[in-house]
Amino acid sequence: MNEKMSDALNQQINAELYSSYLYLSMASFCKRLNLEGFARWMEVQALEELSHAMKFFNFVNERGAKVELKAIAGPPVSWDSPLSVFEAVYEHEVKVTGLIYDLVNLATEARDHATVNFLQWFITEQVEEETSADNIVQKLRLIGSDGGGLYMIDQELARRVFTPLPGTTILAGAGA
Ligand code: FEO
């Protein structure tokens, strides 16, 4: 892997860790609104982002390149409403999709087929992430300020579960 590629993948590790931070901050915001189901959805999302970071981390290591962990920026701490927090999720995921596409372009230019192949999983994942955030935004727009509707969405979001991705736990390299 060339240095430009490994730098860009290291940058993506940082972006995924920032995403995890962002969703944890959103979870805390939702808890402050007593929306426990929203908070759970965000916590599961934060864990998924951590596993995305680990997927990049493991790939960079496997290819014999150097992982360089960089400082993680502090995310915002509050949003205007339950709707605006999910609008921010959607916007963030669209931005991440752009970052993944940039990586694919870079890997394609470098004729780095292994990295192009590795990134395919993320292309599919981003479609799912954008769709799921957009669905929730649409529902929240539909219910407007209806408290009963918000309660029902909170119940629905509470059912989200975290399913670890194979080989992406922190201990993956230790045989876990
Ligand atoms: Fe790691 Fe939400 O994309």
Please give a handful of descriptors for the protein shown.
mainly alpha; 5 helices; binds MU-OXO-diiron
Report on the architecture of this protein:
The protein has a single domain, classed as Ferritin, core subunit, four-helix bundle (Ferritin). The chain is 72% helix and 0% strand. The protein is built from five helices and no strands. The protein has helices spanning 3-32, 36-62, 82-109, 113-143, 147-157. Helix 1 runs antiparallel to helix 2. The longest helix is centred in the C-terminal third of the chain and has 31 residues, at 113-143. The chain is elongated. The mean pLDDT is 95. MU-OXO-diiron is lined by residues 16, 19, 49, 52, 93, 96, 129.
Quick recap:
By secondary structure, the chain is an all-alpha fold.
CATH topology: Ferritin
Residue-averaged pLDDT, rounded?
Answer: 95
CATH architecture: Up-down Bundle
- Count every beta strand, where a strand is a DSSP E run of 2 or more residues: 0
Low-pLDDT parts are none
Topology:
Elements: H1 3-32, H2 36-62, H3 82-109, H4 113-143, H5 147-157
Helix pairs in contact: 1-2, 1-3, 2-5, 3-4, 4-5
This protein binds MU-OXO-diiron.
